[in-house]
Amino acid sequence: MSDPDERVDRNIPDPEELRLYRGRIVEAAARAASEQQPDADAIWTEDSGPGSYRWLWAKWTERAPTVLGWATIAVCFSAVAGWFLDLPWLAGAILRGPEFPVASALMIGALAGALLLLRAGNSGTTKRIGQGVAWVTLGVALMLLVADLAGIEVFDWGAGSMVAPTTAALEFIRTHEPIPRGWYASPIGWLDAHLDGEFAVGIRSAVADERRVWLYAGAGIVGDSLPEKEWRETALKFMPMLRALGAAEVVDRGTKSEERRARSDP
């Protein structure tokens, strides 16, 4: 190498220095390449070419956590807002379907937020926060599940919001109906020693005990149901059993008398 003091410009290396520098760069690049394994997914995606099915699938799986996470949070936020504003359609009660329980919306929304925090490329602190949110959410969900199994109401979220519609309906029936339903809507039939049998759902049914008879009938209640029409439909379903008992005319006269009295009341 030449003497730096003899150069016109010391910032310009001579040919020998350039050779050494290039050699060191090549060695460093080779060492880095040997220590780092190739990304098989990246090679597979790039080889397939932009616009191909493999390329689109790889891009979608890369963005799926973000898209699905934010979509889930939007649905859960809508359910909570619908519950808070008393708007069933906003809470998911579309096409006569049940509302999205607010407790479930809060839990699933929190897990979706944890998924966004745990995405690849986020910092270590962000990922640790996401892990904390996920563990806290799962812990709260387990606590609520145990409390529900034990019959303990931890929070008052509103009627039926913490439980499935079927569970809320059963609780309403136990609280408001004056007599138990007994065999109503239960499978009724026979079974012999050879496991042969026949069963039917006991909806329009009766249970007789000497001189007492219990008759069971009902109607399917939906959001657009009119109580008066449903009541008349239920009375109509009683008529075949009442005729068999010889009491149809007596009950029919009593029903019509009650209807006239109800119409005359202001």
Q: Would you identify the regions where 5 or more consecutive residues have pLDDT less than 50? A: 158-162
Task: Determine Rg (CA atoms, Å).
Answer: 36 Å
Q: Average pLDDT value?
A: 75
Number of strands: 4
Number of helical regions? 8
Question: Proportion of β residues?
Answer: 5-15%
Q: What percentage of residues falls in helices of 4 or more residues? A: 55-70%
Major sheet summary line: 2 strands, antiparallel
Strand-and-helix sequence, N→C? HHHHHHEEEEHH
Strand line-up in the sheet with most strands: 1-2
The secondary-structure class comes to: mainly alpha
Can you give a write-up of this model?
It contains eight helices and four strands. By secondary structure, the protein is mainly alpha-helical. Among the domains are: 51-149, no CATH class; 182-264, no CATH class. A two-stranded antiparallel ribbon has the order 1-2. A hairpin with a 2-residue loop joins β3 and β4. The model is unreliable at 158-162 (pLDDT under 50).
